[in-house]
Design brief:
Blueprint lengths: L8 H11 L9 H13 L3 E4 L5 E5 L11 E6 L21 E4 L2 E4 L6 H15 L8 E6 L2 H4 L1 H5 L9 E4 L7 E6 L1 E10 L2 E3 L4 E9 L17 H15 L3 E7 L10 E8 L3 H18 L8 E6 L5 E3 L1 H13 L3 E5 L7 E13 L2 E10 L2 H17 L3 E4 L13 H14 L4 E5 L5 H7 L4 E4 L4 E2 L7 E3 H16 L6
Parallel strand pairs: 3-6, 3-7, 7-21, 8-20
Antiparallel strand pairs: 1-2, 2-6, 4-5, 5-23, 9-18, 9-19, 10-15, 11-13, 11-14, 12-13, 12-17, 16-17, 17-18, 22-23
Helix pairs in contact: 1-3, 6-8, 8-9, 10-12
Length: 485
């Protein structure tokens, strides 16, 4: 299959156009200009708020003016992750897409189908002359991936629809009617440096090749955390005897399970061979633990030139023990919805800079009190290690409404089109819907989309046949929106 043969053509055309426009989180100027130009070219009413959110309005097709007003919603920004050996500037370079069997992928980077395919669907509806719909508003929000900033900043009255369809879900055949709330917890450890001891072997150890993924959607899939694995290895060496830490770095984004991490360390020269032996034993253990989920897991060790300084010993010990104690992964499963993660935490990033080590984490839960408890648990481990800790205000969850009218429309539409009932679910990830509900409490909401896998990582891919199903489903839903009361 060639890219030019992808169906529906209009949807893939707009997705490809979006891929040409750089859109990192917090740097959406270019994609916003693209959206404004799109609206102006077609004579569509639009407005931009102070945060940079864009709303484009399209009147109802003739005979559909009596239907309730629908807001289609997606976010402009994308997670910008690339493989180490990929040359790519996310602020300048287009995403290079290609077809691999039934999947659309990107060359060495995130694809940006999260949420570029939602944007493309909105643009395709706005540009089409043959799509039946009632009064329509298309909302494009900024900075969803790093802080839900656009949704937080949305003012009452910016939009005035009755129904909101969020196009930021990632599983065909599933309708989402709820999501987790979340918050980030950051620890800042002191990192005093002292003169390196004489007669030590310096080496660099790296964890590579992990699957990574979304810290909400993928947290229950037993994928390894590079920061945790690196910390485990360093603790093994510390338990053997003398270990000194010079440098450490791992992970990047708060909402991505870290795939890579490394540390530069030193041990007495007499322990040089033991370092390699310990690594080999540890690698074998991890290959057994993660035989299914991490087939490409790799531990690398190479010698380093001697460093002038190492981290002060007691500060290093407090840091390593503390990181070992910090919870990562699923903490509790939902008692109401089978298979749904209720509460979790992600040890996302470790960055050494300016005499400090900064550790970023995120906690999620569909129950606010449980999210606060999880954040306090993580805070406690950090505080015991001597860190200064802050937890953000976070964002609210979206409580499921099984009696939703738009859910009924979407479910009946899917079954009518494809001959099977969709699954109605909540998601253990942050959708902007919870924030919309705070500003617009009467909104009736549902979320759906095509099948995406590997989001927030360079393995991100979109299942091509489900895009056509997603498009047909969306159009059928728009044609069956209830009338205004």
């Amino acid at each position: 299959m060639e890219k030019k043969d992808l169906k529906p053509a209009i949807l893939f055309r707009y997705f490809e156009e979006i891929c040409q426009v750089p859109r990192p989180s917090k740097k959406e100027e270019k994609i916003r200009a693209y959206l404004v130009n799109f609206a102006e070219t077609r004579g569509l009413e639009y407005k931009v708020d102070e945060a940079g959110n864009v709303l484009i309005v399209k009147p109802a097709t003739p005979g559909k003016e009596h239907l309730k007003t629908v807001i289609l919603q997606s976010h402009m920004d994308m997670v910008c992750e690339k493989n180490k050996d990929t040359e790519h500037d996310f602020e300048k370079d287009p995403i290079q897409t290609y077809v691999d069997g039934e999947w659309l992928k990107a060359k060495g980077t995130t694809l940006g189908a999260d949420n570029g395919i939602g944007m493309a669907a909105e643009l395709a509806v706005l540009a089409s002359d043959d799509v039946e719909h009632g009064p329509l508003q298309c909302l494009f929000t900024v900075d969803e991936e790093t802080g839900l900033t656009g949704a937080f900043a949305l003012k009452e009255g910016f939009m005035d629809g009755d129904i909101l369809i969020n196009l930021d879900s990632e599983d065909d055949g599933e309708l989402f009617i709820g999501c987790a709330g979340g918050a980030g917890t950051t620890a800042v450890y002191p990192c005093p440096m002292v003169a390196a001891p004489e007669g030590y072997f310096f080496f660099r150890v790296a964890v590579k090749g992990l699957t990574g993924g979304h810290s909400g959607d993928d947290i229950n899939k037993n994928r390894a955390n590079a920061n945790k694995l690196l910390n485990r290895y360093l603790m093994r060496l510390l338990n053997r005897g003398d270990l000194r830490l010079c440098e450490i770095d791992g992970g990047n984004l708060h909402n991505a399970i870290p795939r890579e991490a490394y540390a530069v360390c030193a041990v007495p020269m007499s322990e040089k061979e033991a370092v390699r032996v310990e690594l080999n034993v540890f690698q074998a253990e991890l290959e057994n633990e993660y035989a299914v989920t991490e087939p490409n897991l790799l531990l690398e060790l190479e010698s380093e030139t001697a460093r002038a300084e190492v981290m002060e010993l007691e500060a290093m010990k407090r840091f390593l023990h503390s990181i070992y104690a910090v919870h990562h992964g699923v903490y509790a499963m939902s008692q109401d919805i089978p298979g749904l993660v209720e509460t979790s935490s992600n040890l996302a990033s470790i960055k050494q800079r300016d005499g400090k080590i900064v550790v970023g984490t995120s906690q999620r839960s569909s129950i606010l009190s449980s999210r606060k408890d999880m954040s306090q648990m993580v805070r406690s481990a950090f505080i015991l290690g001597g860190a200064e800790v802050t937890t953000g205000d976070g964002y609210p969850g979206w409580k499921p409404n099984p009696d939703s009218a738009i859910l009924k429309v979407a479910a009946e539409s899917y079954e009518r089109l494809f001959g099977e009932k969709p699954k109605v679910k909540a998601i253990h990830a942050g959708l902007e819907c919870g924030l919309f509900l705070e500003k617009y409490p009467s909104l009736d909401m549902v979320s759906f989309g095509p099948t995406l896998r590997g989001v927030h990582s360079p393995d991100e891919r979109m299942l091509i046949p489900t895009v056509d199903k997603f498009w047909k489903h969306l159009l059928d839903v728009l044609a069956h929106i209830p009338a205004q009361a």
